[in-house]
Amino acid sequence: MTLEKKPAHSDATRRTVRRVLPPPVTGQEFVLIGVIAALWILLGIFTPAFLTPGSIQPLLVSVAPIALIGVGMTFIIITAGIDVSVGGAIMLCAVVTAKALVTTGVPLVGAIALSVALGLVLGLVNGTLIAYGRVHAIIITFGTANVFQFLALRVFGSSTVNGIPSTLEVFGRGEAGRTLGVPNSFALTVLAVAIAWWYLRHTAGGRHLFAIGGNAQAARLAGIKVQPRIVATYALTGALVGVAACFFIASGTSTLDQTIGSGRELAVIAAVVIGGTSILGGRGSVIGTLLGAILVATVTSGVTQIGWPSQLANLFVGVFIIIAVGTDLLRERARRKS
Amino acid sequence: MRAKRAMTVGAIALAATITVAGCTTRNDDSAGGSGGGEDDQITVAFVPKLQGIPYFEAMNAGGQAAAEELGIEWLYQGPTTADAAAQADIVRSFIQQDVDALIVAPNDPDSMAPLLKEAADKGIKVATSDTDAPNSVREVFVNQASAQGIGEALTDSLMNAMGGSGKYAIVSCGETAANLNAWIAVQEEYTASEYPDAEIVDIVYAGEDQAAATSMATDLMNANPDLTGLVGECTSSAPGVAQAVKDANKIGSVFTVGLGTPMSMAPYLEDGSSSASILWNVENLGYLTAWTGQQLAEGNEIAATNDVNSDMPAVEFDEGSKVLLLGPPLEITKDNVGDFDY
């Protein structure tokens, strides 16, 4: 009897362990995949060329920087933080890198390294102020957003950066930006999403982020070093902004103007929220963020290709955000009731 | 409770971002904030739609040159995003400084009108330049080129490249920008009457966003496989549409023209992804703006034809509409693009 009971017991334990981990792909992600698939099929039917490489490739190029920063933003929002300074950080990284490309002709690796190093510093500033200053993330990053913008405008110096060389074209929309038909920037983004997915799901460090977002006090009492973890999420986002700034330069024109980065923080947050990450913290997924970014880009591109007025894209994205946040709040309420 | 807090945070987030986007202004070294105090020198303030872009910086350069030659003080300050509210704040501050003449390129002509009235009531001479506010008390509109002239020049340049026929689309910027919409109206009419074999298939609005303009141009080419022309209606979409054609490897099969500044268009004019850029002499426009401010402040009547300087010997003024016209538009191609440094 006892011998028979033992395996049954350990089986139950294993089942409990399994239940602690969420499923690899959540319900919301299946919904997103379904919506994106349905939209792509509909657009494929109703437009002459939506489902052709000439249309999908540029779409993925425009998804890449938003989803890449979205990976970092997902980490931040999981810890119940937020970063509204990424628009300003993109602007500063992009203008410094573009200036370096024009004036000193730095090579590809040098340009990326410069941009990432700068982004990392900006992220560390945010993270340190938030983790140790104990002021809400939105206030701190609102402040730093203005500072970053100011610095970027000083670097611009009342003119655009003209004649940017094609050093970064491996991340661009053109043929040099693709390997086997897949845009390099998008492939790198998918790689980052995969690593982040694994980290969040299968490492203690990743689970700690969820714990911090669920209840920072409890996480601290459980022995998690909350502050360094928070600094790390902002630093990661900063570094990813550095890479994304290179994507933005590459997919832009040969002129960089001061509208670069403007409003991108909202695009990133929209992708994260539509992807099912809870704005309350404690829940979220990077796969959802990637899907959210693809959905937004699909709607924007689809509206133009179908010939509808451009502003309808804003309406659809707005509705998606409200639906996503609404379902999240309802789910939260249901969970607390049960 | 938690949900409520989250919503509050969300609301703050939204408000904060909107403020970040809208209300940042920056001091320009060359035009400090010390206006209006002295009685001996006339102060002319110009508020562009957006500060820091080459177009308005070139106007500023022209205005500064005029200030030096004419012995007036030229103040130049604008918002860092093309935002009507941020621009209104700057206009208000110039009203408080009690400048002699206030000239605005309004982002939103309708919301600017009451502010111009406020200025005029305080005895400040008001005018518009680059973009008009027709339903306001402005005494003069300094017009870079007539809507007719620009619309026709854009259409002729594009048709010249497209061989007089085919389908084309327009990537415009602000959906409410009165001048862009006026040019588009001319393009539609002129294309229909002069080029019956050509057709405008779509008009889209990208805002002042290069990346959005490039994406939309790509989408338009995909949506209309037989498209052979694109127009970038403003300085951010002109290089944007050219870049889209270049990226899609369609140089020579899809032609673009646009209103782009010379330096930003040079690479595209050279590789053929842009056939021509229609513009005007922006520095002269800045000069003329400063000159107009001086005339108004001194209480001079503006004549039907004005000798402004050697570059602008006969600038015409229409008494009925109060429009001062810089002249016919300028076609910039790969042959003369090197002559400009903005």
UniProtKB/TrEMBL annotation, chain A:
Coiled coil: none
UniProt topology in membrane: Multi-pass membrane protein
Localization per Swiss-Prot or TrEMBL: Cell membrane
GO annotations of cellular component type: plasma membrane
Alphabetically ordered keywords of this record: Cell membrane, Membrane, Transmembrane, Transmembrane helix
Molecular function, one GO term: transmembrane transporter activity
Domain of life from the UniProt record: Bacteria
Transmembrane segments: 30-52, 59-82, 102-125, 137-156, 176-200, 230-250, 262-280, 287-306, 312-330
PANTHER family: ABC TRANSPORTER PERMEASE PROTEIN YPHD-RELATED-RELATED, RIBOSE IMPORT PERMEASE PROTEIN RBSC
Protein name, as recorded: Ribose transport system permease protein
Species assigned in the record: Glaciihabitans tibetensis
Lineage, highest ranks first: Bacteria, Bacillati, Actinomycetota, Actinomycetes, Micrococcales
TrEMBL record, chain B:
InterPro entries per the UniProt record, alphabetical: Bact_Solute-Bind_Prot2, Peripla_BP_I, SBP_2_dom
Organism superkingdom: Bacteria
Residue span(s) of domain Periplasmic binding protein: 44-301
Subcellular location: Cell envelope
GO CC list: outer membrane-bounded periplasmic space
Signal as UniProt keyword: yes
Keyword Electron transport included in the entry's annotation: no
PROSITE patterns per the UniProt record, alphabetical: PROKAR_LIPOPROTEIN
SUPFAM superfamilies, per database record: Periplasmic binding protein-like I
Record's protein name: Monosaccharide ABC transporter substrate-binding protein (CUT2 family)
